[in-house]
Structures are given as C-alpha cells and as structure tokens.
Protein 1
Amino acid sequence: MQKLILPLNNCQVLCGYKNEAYRKAWGRPHYGQDHWSSKDKTVWAMGSGEVVAAGFDNVYGGTAVVLYKSVYLRTGGVIDLVARCYHMSAVYVKAGQAVTTATKIGLMGNTGQYTSGEHLHVEFDTDTKWPCYTIELKNNSNIMKKGSGPDTTIDPAGVLYVKASAPDNQSAKPNADYYSRGFGLEKDFLFPEFDAPDYKALYEKEQQRYSTLVAELRKLID
Ligand SMILES: [Zn+2]
C-alpha cells in the first residue's frame, strides 16, 4: 500500500476535477486537477510505479502515463491507478522505467492543446487495462487514444497527499486568482498530510486501554 504525494512540491491548485466554472469556460468537463508552481517547475513521480508511456503527444504536449499499484484512497480502499500528466515542457522518463518519489518525471510547461498557460494537468484513471485511453479525445493521437467510455477517472483530491517532511518539503494552497473565479474549491486544495499520525489506530489503541481499565476497576469493585 502506498500514499501518492503531489507531483509539484510547491503546489498552487488552479482548477479542480469536473469544476463547474471550467465547464462553463471551456464547454467540456475537466477530468483532472491543474497545478502550478511559482518556484520549482520539477514534476516528480507521485509514488512507486512504472512508466507506461511518455513523450510528446500531439494533443496533450509533454505527457507521462504512470501506473501506481496499491494506492491508498482518502475515502478508504486501496486500488491500482493510472496517473497522467500533461503539458510538460520536458519529459525525463521512458516507457518501462520504474519510478519512485525521487524520480524527476519532467518539467511543468505549456505544451500541447487544451492549455492556456503554464501548468501541470494531473489526472487519475481507475481503468489500468487501458492506461492511454481517454474519453476526452475525439480522435486517436500519437500517445493518447480515443476512449469509448464509461468515464473511469477519479478526483485527484481524493488521492493525493501533501508531504511536508524532507526531502520533498511540500506545500499546497489555492491560487488566489483562480480561486476567486471559482476554478478551485476548498476540497480541491485541502490535501491530507502524508506524515500525519494514524488517528484511527491511535483511537482504537486508546479504546482498548480504556476497556482494560474499566474491566480492572470492575474486578476491584466486585
Ligand atoms: Zn487540466
């Protein structure tokens, strides 16, 4: 089991998954999140995985498709996921390559179509059998292919964690401009902390201790 962390260490969220303001502005659903960094443009691998496809796509620009296995979801449950990153100005990985959070995938950029400024599009797909297929495309591209549906993408806000500890030293916040225009909601940038204690386990341990104490007290009273 693994928790995936943000691909940009100094992350500002521009736009959320299936955001309504995005749909109104562009006339189509947004199947991922848009991230941006004012400082470090390095796109890191989000966990331990394997590159399925990488390079420059005619539609999506600098693209990396990575399979991450046994990914822990915020909502509970563990599944295999395909992560797709688009619009990078440089792609450093190759198909078949194993990656960890120490692997540089590429650089945030503004390449391809469906982009109006520098940002990283991050998308997760539960259909790991067809990692390069997307229902967003009307025609096949060179890397990405036209999918027939149903839509199998999920909200990155339910997948990604922010890892504040070294070496990543991550932070996440909304982009003020995009937030004021409704492109990012609170659920889109309030990522859980990667390093936070397991409160459920701590709670259960305390409950166990309490039960034992109560049982011992009962014995004393009886
Ligand atoms: Zn996007």
Protein 2
Amino acid sequence: MPRTAPTTGSGPAAPAASSGPTRPAGPGDSGETPLGRTRRARRVMRTLGELHPDARIALTFSTPLQLVIATVLSAQCTDKKVNEVTPGLFARYPDAAAFAGADRAQLEEILRPTGFFRAKTNSVLGLAAALIERFDGEVPGRLEDLVTLPGVGRKTANVVLGHAFGVPGITVDTHVGRLSRRFGFTVNEDPVRVEADLGALLERRDWTIDSDRMIFHGRRVCHARRPACGACGVAKLCPSYGLGPTEPEIAARLVRGDVEAVK
Ligand code: SF4
C-alpha cells in the first residue's frame, strides 16, 4: 500500500512511498515556518477536540488532595483500576491528616490492587506528612510547591494544576510526548523540553484540554507500536501519516474505544 497523504486538507506533505518509515518533521527540519507550525498545531488541537469531544481526565476525584493521590496511584496502573480503589480509600481517609495517620499495613492492603503498593504507600504517607508539615494540610496551587511533595513530579503537578485548580498546565505523559514528536511539534524526548515546545505553540488557556485531547488520541488511535493512520481523523495534518497501517479496514481494527481501561 503506497503511503500517500489523504486527499483533503492542506497539511504538510506525506512522506514519499519509497522513503521507508516516516520520521516526524520537527522544528528546523521540515521547511515549515514557525507561524505555519503554530497554525497547524492549533488546527490539530481543534480537530482532536472534534474527534474526542469526551476528552477529559479519566481519574475520579472531588478535591485537589484526591486528585494528587489518584495520580500517584495511576503510575503503572490503569485509571480504571485506580477508580475502583479510590472510593473506598477516600471514604476511609477523608483528608491529609487522616492519610498521615494511616496504619501502613492497612493502607498497603487497600492500595495493593494498583500495583507497586509498597512504594505507593510510601508516597502517599510522605505526601500527606509533607502537606501537614508545610502546607497546613492543603494541596498547594503552585507548580513550584507541588513538585516539592514526595511522589509528585512535574507531570503530576500539571495534572493537578489543570484539573483541580483551573490553572492551565501541559501534561507530558508518554502519549503527549509521542504525539508531539509525530506531529512535528518537537524533536525533544525530555518532557520538560516537550512541555516548553508545546507551550510556545498552543494557546495557554487550552493547555489542559489540549493535553487531554492528545492523551485520548494516543490511547485510542495513535498507539505507540501501530498507530491507526488509515482511520485517523487528523491524518491530513500529520507529517507522520504512514507510520502505521493506512489501509482503512486494517487501521479501523486498531482503534480502541475504552480509553479508561488503556494506559
Ligand atoms: S495515527 Fe498516524 S496520522 Fe494519526 S496522528 Fe498518529 S502518526 Fe499521525
């Protein structure tokens, strides 16, 4: 099957059929101007919004503390599994003081289904203690404070800022990093650099929802191993079209629906 670009739209040229595996165009090597890249990035995000109108954070929470803890638990675990565990967890430990005073063995038992439960118990206990000690038991609403908490890296901090505080944040998880490179929005692997490159292209007010949209597209369509290019609604804007199967019927079989069960 030749790798030809979809016939509609005005996105960057698709790779030639004989060029072998495609390489995402990136700043400085695609011939695309910075303004052109910015415009394309915003069109990509608008299109992803149309393709995934249900894009949102998949973790269930009602307070910043609950979201921080759910995000910590989601490492190496599906959001669906975390959502099965957290109702009982949050009912038993309603605030940071309750978590800080939790019996380690009991907490480990509750967290066991999420995997790596000893390490996660350490993180939760350390996090709760730090909140009590330094932030009066409340989750801080600033990135520079959040990243000082045990178990909270920049990715988790941006998730919490964006979804619990309404502060725009770009969450560079595995999907956002991969899609950013495939779209040619960055050539970097380092999440902090990817975040900066995306931040320069996207409207600040949309950073949180754009991250969610990319995560949904990564989970449903643009998979790490076999992206469903032939069934991808944003293909005409993607310089990596052809990285996965372009045959519609083959590609359609790769598309997943239940994103909450997929990391
Ligand atoms: S599935 Fe293919 S065309 Fe769609 S975004 Fe991913 S690499 Fe690009």
